[in-house]
Write a structure and sequence with these properties.
Blueprint lengths: L2 H9 L2 E4 L12 E11 L7 E12 L5 H14 L4 E3 L3 E3 L4 E8 L2 E4 L15 E4 L2
Parallel strand pairs: 1-2
Antiparallel strand pairs: 2-3, 3-6, 3-7, 4-6, 5-6, 7-8
Helix pairs in contact: 1-2
Length: 130
């Protein structure tokens, strides 16, 4: 399990990769994890993947949710996930407030044969960019 997944599980809200609030209307809090990956390496061999991760926290926009937004920031820091938290925006259509957390990025390396889903791939690990 990745540090991001551990942090989100600790936070306790529903979360999903590339998920949207509309697929979880019953949830009062919901996190969508957006992971943009850029691959790099010599010709025909991918040696690393650079991840740019954005977390979108959706909540009801109540004053009590402000503490929850700070709590997610605190948990991310505890898991050494450096991030920037942007001000919340209220979305009238969904009647939810959205708070965006941009993680500073990390590199995934140790991919054998340049294949991400290779069952024989070397053990994967993540290094956060400092």
């Amino acid at each position: 399990m990745s540090a991001i997944e551990e942090a989100l599980d600790e936070f306790g809200a529903s979360w999903e990769y590339d998920g949207f609030i509309f697929s979880h209307p019953e949830s009062s809090r919901y996190v969508s994890v957006l992971d943009e990956v850029e691959s790099d390496g010599p010709d025909r061999l991918v040696m690393l993947h650079r991840h740019s991760v954005t977390l979108e926290l959706y909540d009801d926009g109540a004053r009590s949710d402000a503490e929850s937004r700070r709590e997610l920031s605190r948990i991310l820091n505890e898991h050494n996930l450096r991030h920037t938290r942007h001000p919340s925006v209220y979305l009238k259509e969904s009647k939810k407030a959205m708070t965006v957390y941009e993680l500073d990025g990390f590199i995934e390396k140790g991919i054998k044969n340049g294949k991400r889903d290779d069952p024989d791939a070397a053990e994967r690990h993540h290094d956060w960019i400092v």
